[in-house]
Write a structure and sequence with these properties.
Elements: H1 7-19, H2 22-29, H3 33-47, E1 52-55, E2 58-61, H4 63-91, E3 93-99, H5 101-118, E4 122-128, E5 142-146, E6 155-168, H6 170-175, E7 182-186, H7 193-200, E8 207-213, H8 216-224, E9 229-233, H9 238-242, E10 247-248, E11 255-265, H10 273-299, E12 304-305
Helix pairs in contact: 1-2, 1-3, 1-4, 2-3
């Protein structure tokens, strides 16, 4: 037979120690005073010590009782906090998504306030990392991934079509000849300069290969600084294009448009109401964003090509 105190006995003991009266503890617990007294006696017999000093109808804790009460109170407080957290999580809507850092900061983060205001009861967690989620091992509901959209075994839904074209600062455009251009590459981009020139059937001129950055944010900033020409996503560079910190380098070369950003999740997640609401919101925002980009390209006489 187990010699460990039962949880029931500990609950009864903690209540008596806190209230100082068996009858009061019994009332709070919804049991008879004799049931409480029996549990206290069983606990004392098990421990081999007296937990209370009894003076007529008054009870006070012994030294051992004080030690046991401190431990029990701490344990029950921890359990109650866990219970309240679990209940709160069950009552609230929770979504965990993962996005690439540049997309999270430059596009999604700027628009999230609209979603949050529309869903004030949601618990939303966004992790920014370039690493795709292993849905078998990680507790993540959804990835917003940049790439080809062909991840096997997962639902792949395109939420944003992107347009890529060369861009630079107005000052760089004004002072640099085409054959003197310095080209900036984003190493994580789906379309880089070598592919761009192949699509254009062009032979590169100028300085290529010296400036390569892992993050689009870094490459875009260097172009804004007047370092060179970056081949970048209009989605990620939209703020700089909108306020003319960046301008098209060679509008006559056009822009490549392709499905770039994808909502990715396991098939079992795809029909969850919460996930569906978030994906639909991202796609609606993406559609509005694409319309703005198309208007920009039209205004600058940049033709659209499919890679």
């Amino acid at each position: 037979m187990s010699r460990d105190p039962s949880l029931n006995a500990m609950v009864y003991f903690e209540s008596v120690a806190r209230t100082g009266r068996v009858a009061k503890a019994a009332e709070q617990l919804g049991v008879s005073p004799s049931a409480v007294s029996q549990q206290i006696k069983l606990l004392e017999n098990l421990l081999g010590v007296a937990l209370f000093r009894r003076d007529k109808r008054e009870l006070s804790l012994t030294l051992e009782g004080e030690q046991m009460f401190t431990a029990a109170s701490s344990a029950f407080t921890t359990l109650d906090a866990a219970r309240r957290r679990i209940t709160r999580q069950r009552e609230r809507q929770q979504l965990i998504a993962r996005v690439s850092p540049s997309f999270g900061v430059r596009w999604l983060g700027q628009r999230l306030v609209g979603f949050i205001d529309a869903h004030p009861d949601w618990d939303l967690r966004i992790d920014a990392t370039a690493d795709p989620t292993n849905f078998d091992r990680e507790v993540v509901d959804l990835d917003l991934r940049y790439g080809h959209g062909q991840w096997p075994g997962l639902v792949n839904q395109c939420v944003i079509q992107d347009s890529v074209f060369p861009m630079c600062s107005p000052d760089y455009l004004a002072r640099t000849a085409v054959d003197e251009a310095r080209y900036i590459d984003s190493t994580q981009a789906a379309i880089q300069w070598d592919r761009w020139w192949a699509e254009q059937s062009m032979t590169p001129t100028g300085d290529y290969g010296a400036l390569r950055f892992e993050r689009s944010s870094m490459a875009i900033q260097q172009a804004v600084n007047g370092v060179g020409v970056v081949l970048e996503s209009a989605t990620l560079a939209w703020d700089e294009l909108s306020d003319a910190r960046l301008v098209p380098w060679a509008p006559e070369q056009g822009a490549l448009r392709f499905p770039a950003y994808w909502a990715v999740c396991p098939p079992g997640h795809a029909n969850r109401r919460l996930l569906r609401a978030f994906i639909d919101w991202v796609q609606a925002e993406g559609t509005a964003h694409e319309s703005a980009i198309q208007a920009y390209l039209l205004a600058h006489a940049i033709r659209i090509q499919q890679p």
